[in-house]
């Protein structure tokens, strides 16, 4: 944590960009954490294929009720499976083949007991979980998870969900582990008829009910993170557009319609940039939506939550303090970039949530480069560095539902910029990023898979570089000394075994590149007569430098 009061505002601003919960102290975990975060036999024994979720929202009571119908395939013989639902929510019953199922609860875990053993390859359809209760209300969404029950300026209910980090089991029963995504989802929102209910995917049915409520049914045809499944209810106005063959739909508060039509013009150039650099948008079947929400934003797949006030920057501010961040709408660009990194490619444990946030924050600079040029992109990335604490690793602890530090955003982005500089071949770099997305789209992956892919595609051993930035709090320090004969010697200070990375530097106006390791001094065979003649490229490489005497 920062200890100087004059920069507390910077710290708060940094944390406010997080779309995650704050992490616990490392290594202080409970049985509840293990039940929530581990791939126990009761979880790995089955693979979810589909959710058919129906939820009724009663705004005045802040009460919800519904049923989640789950289809799954058995992977290993079992007679007991785990689903998840927060303790404060009621699991009213579990029904399969017209029979009430026995279940027991421990913390937020629910264990379903089958009378007969399920066999590998068995396909179970329509096991129904009936639930009800008062879901946790988020006090400061999206940074603390929950339902948001708000009102617009006309006094109409304005409702949304935001549960990244805390988990979708906050409000409905599901297998709440990121390693298993349903292949498809149907969501039916039942809400007062004077409002519109919007979720992920495409609207397939609207049914007015007799009790003053209307049911809106949405279908998602692609794998989706549980936390991305969303409920949005408001007095929405709808308008649409087209990007090539991709349907663009926008749901905004009725009185913000004209503002939205102007601000959302940034969507098409964003999509063009990201498709060029990262590959095709992965969810054409489900379309692309921006949905106005009573909180800042969230990357809900094919239903991106937007609450940035129709302003450029981050609520009208520039996170980088360079001026570059005011040229574009932070939430449109950042949350939409998650469609590639976080939604299409997802981490299989939230300990690797940096895969979502590092690549997405880096994508902000990619958009800047597409629109305004490389120099502005570098200026933006360097402008974010004061927001990096470097006090805790960006990788969390596996198996206990633990995220790494918030440095996964800005530090992670600068790590990727550093690796681009190491590669020193932009054609290969962009080709690699595109193949990374196309190779892993619709999959859940981990750190090892990321590193192995980049090593193989780039034909470079970047393992020590990734490991240092991901698993350590401190960034690499380049130590240098000038020998008595004025020769320049360099080495890296890193606890990572055989840490190796090149560095670009200037002696007067001459540029040099040298591969440096951590195990010994490297003599550059170059002479430096005055310290002021030596400059290291710390804009392209996110490092510290230190002169030592010997």
Tell me about the largest β-sheet.
8 strands, mixed
Show unreliable segments: 1-24
Distance between the termini: 33 Å
- Structure annotation, total helices: 12
The backbone outline, from C-alpha atoms, is globular
- Roughly how many Å is the radius of gyration? 25 Å
Which range does the strand content fall in? 25-35%
Averaged pLDDT, please? 94
Determine the structural class based on helices, strands and strand pairing.
alpha+beta
Task: Name the strands of the widest sheet in spatial order.
Answer: 5-4-8-2-1-11-14-13
Supply the key terms.
550 residues, 12 helices, eight-stranded mixed sheet, 29 strands, alpha+beta, five-stranded mixed sheet
Please give the structural blueprint.
Layout: H1 8-16, H2 31-37, H3 41-44, E1 46-58, E2 63-74, E3 78-84, E4 90-96, E5 99-100, E6 102-106, E7 109-118, E8 123-133, E9 146-151, E10 157-162, E11 184-192, E12 196-198, E13 202-208, E14 213-220, E15 232-234, E16 236-243, E17 246-253, H4 257-263, H5 267-278, E18 288-292, E19 297-298, E20 304-306, H6 330-337, E21 345-347, H7 354-372, H8 374-384, H9 410-423, H10 426-440, E22 443-445, H11 447-458, H12 463-471, E23 477-482, E24 487-493, E25 500-507, E26 510-517, E27 522-527, E28 534-536, E29 544-547
Parallel strand pairs: 1-11, 17-18, 18-20, 21-22, 23-29
Antiparallel strand pairs: 1-2, 2-8, 3-7, 4-5, 4-8, 6-7, 9-10, 10-15, 11-14, 12-15, 13-14, 16-17, 19-20, 23-24, 24-27, 25-26, 25-28
Helix pairs in contact: 5-6, 5-7, 6-7, 7-8, 7-9, 8-9, 9-12, 10-11
